[in-house]
Amino acid sequence: MAEETHVHDDATLGFEHLLADDDVIYTATQIFDALSDFTRFQILGALSTGERGVTDLEEVCHVSQSAISHQLRLLRDRGLVTARRDGQRVIYSLADDHVITLIRVGLEHAGHTFDVEGV
C-alpha cells in the first residue's frame, strides 16, 4: 500500500498554525455556538440581505423585542454583527462578508443552496 503524501501549501500551513492557537480555537467555537441557535441564525440570515432594526427582525423571527435584543447582544459580543445609531433607532448589520460565508456554507452543508451573490 502506497504511503499517502500530504502537500502543504501556504493555506494549509496557515490553517495548521490557527489550529495550534488555543485562543483562535476558543473564539471559533464561540462563533459556531452563536450560529447554533435557530433565532440567531434567522437574524443573521435576515441581515445578510441588508441592515435592519429590531422591529424588522421581530417580524422576521416572530419573537419578542426583548428576545431579539438579547440575541443581538450575543451576536455583537461574538463579533458577528455591528450596530449604528440612526436617531433613536439602532440599525444592525453583519460584521463582514465572512458571516455571509458561514451562513451560506452552513445552509449548503445542510443540503440547501443559498444565493448570496449581490449581497
Number of helices: 6
Mean pLDDT: 87
Determine Rg (CA atoms, Å). Answer: 18 Å
Rounded to the nearest angstrom, the distance between the terminal CA atoms is 48 Å
Task: Count all strands and give the number.
Answer: 3
Strand content: 5-15%
List the strand order in the largest sheet. Answer: 1-3-2
- The 3D shape can be described as elongated
Provide the helix percentage: 55-70%
Structural class: mainly alpha
Explain this structure to me?
Strand 2 and strand 3 form a beta hairpin. The mean pLDDT is 87. With 119 residues, this protein is mainly α. It is built from 6 helices and 3 strands. The longest helix is centred in the N-terminal third of the chain and has 14 residues, at 22-35. 57% of the residues lie in helices and 12% in strands. It has a 3-stranded antiparallel β-sheet. The relative contact order is 0.12. It has helices at 10-19, 22-35, 38-47, 54-61, 65-77, 97-109; strands spanning 52-53, 81-86, 89-94.
